[in-house]
Amino acid sequence: MTPTYKKIDSTIMNKMNKIQVLNIIHDKKIISRADIVKITGLTPPTVSRIVEQLINQDGLVKYIGVGDSNGGRPPINIAFNGSENYVIAVDLGATLIRGLLSDLNNDMQMEIQVATGLGKSYESIMDNVANVIERLLNKKGLNRDKVLGVGIGIAGLVNIKNGMVDFSPDFGWEAMNIQNSLKQRINLPFIFDNSTRLMALGELDYGLGKKYRDFVVINIGYGIAAGIVIDGKTVCGSKGKAGEFGHILVDSDTNIKCECGAYGCLEALASGRRIAALGKELFEKKKSQKLMELCRNDPGLIDAKLVFEAARSGDKDANEILETVTNYLGIGIASLVNLLDPEVIFMGGGVSSNGEIFFKPLIKAIKSHLISRDKKLDIKPATFADYATLTGAFSLVVNKIIRLESLR
Ligand SMILES: [Zn+2]
User: Fold this and answer.
1) Cα–Cα distance list, 109 to 122, 131, 187, 204, 230 (Å)
2) Of the CATH numbers 3.30.420.40, 3.90.180.10, 3.40.50.720, 3.20.20.70, which one belongs to the domain with range 210-382?
3) Are 173 and 157 spatial neighbours (Cβ–Cβ below 8 Å)?
4) pLDDT at res. 4
5) Which terminus has fewer CB within 10 Å in the chain: N or C?
6) Which residues lie below 8 Å from residue 274, measured CB to CB, with a gap of 6+?
């Protein structure tokens, strides 16, 4: 073995030990140095050296004093320094840009939201993202060096290999260099990913998903997408584009075109956008008295929420829309279950927040297409509802920090 090789080897080993110690402190929140020695099998001087570095160089750990003695030397307790370091999470959606400032313990400090400005230029939307971040910093009166990173969830095909958004039907973007655009505007380390994959990551690290290793989060709102977790890890695919569940074919006979350009995609037939369009068709055909009342005779006000409201009041036509839509979703979700065999499916996004009137026909439709003989299916609402992507964006940054990886 050459001396150079030996040196690299020990550097890697030191870093691995440091990551292991930091992760233990992060998990336990408070722990004694002696207990870290017991858990890791590292020597007491090594643990002391690593802890000193984490306190003095990284600022990620702090001393919290001497604990009670059990007869021997009293333990020196240390804690994860979550309250003095901050993360900004941003959810860049078609309607709103939402920003959240939290400390590293995931205690929310401040929230801001602005209209995305859909229809305006790409550059102005990027400016709006930067403004949300600046406003959070200013409002809290926070020094930039206290913010360890910004995590951003973007609705679209995010290619995490090259930092591009290859395609986003929501924004009408193609081949946008998000990495460069944000770098010019955000004077902080940042990282971004697809918003639905971040929903899955947030569910895995902080939600009910903590209990599971294999699950799928399905996001049904303006569009449809899935965040897939296999063996405790989010699935990215070869370029980071896995999970485009909205663009699987569920009806080859339809002439309904998807925003992606194809016909018969699940998103074209079962998204919130489609429910609203079907509601407007009812209005034009002068059907659904209830929907006419709810929109006060203005079809421009018909959205998915109003269709659900009409269905809830017993309106037959509105219920037929939900039956059509949940049947397509059932075909799609059953295919996903047949393919991946998840322990549970979490349903997120605005359409999924409609309770029983949505879940009852949906579960029936899924079961009718499942191959499994017992037809058991655990399907639950996602834990964080409107905060799902923001929680995942926060988690994306924290995971980098506790693995001592640098952000972009
Ligand atoms: Zn499509």
Assistant:
1) 29, 18, 20, 22, 32
2) 3.30.420.40
3) no
4) 60
5) N
6) 256, 267, 268, 325
Sites in the chain below the pLDDT cut of 50: none
- pLDDT of 6 reads 60
Please give the pLDDT value at position 10: 84
Q: Measured in angstroms, how far is the CA atom of residue 115 from the centroid of ligand 1?
A: 26
Q: Which CATH number fits domain 84-203+388-402: 3.40.50.880, 3.20.20.150, 3.40.50.300, 3.30.420.40?
A: 3.30.420.40
What is the token pair recorded at 24? 């233990």
pTM: 0.91
Q: How far is the CA of 252 from the centre of ligand 1 (A)?
A: 12
Taking a 5 Å cut-off on Cβ, the residues next to ion ligand 1 are 247, 258, 260, 262, 265
Q: For the chain, what are the domain ranges?
A: 3-80, 84-203+388-402, 210-382
- What pLDDT shows up at residue 2? 55
Spatial strand order of the sheet with 164-168 comes to 157-159, 164-168, 173-176
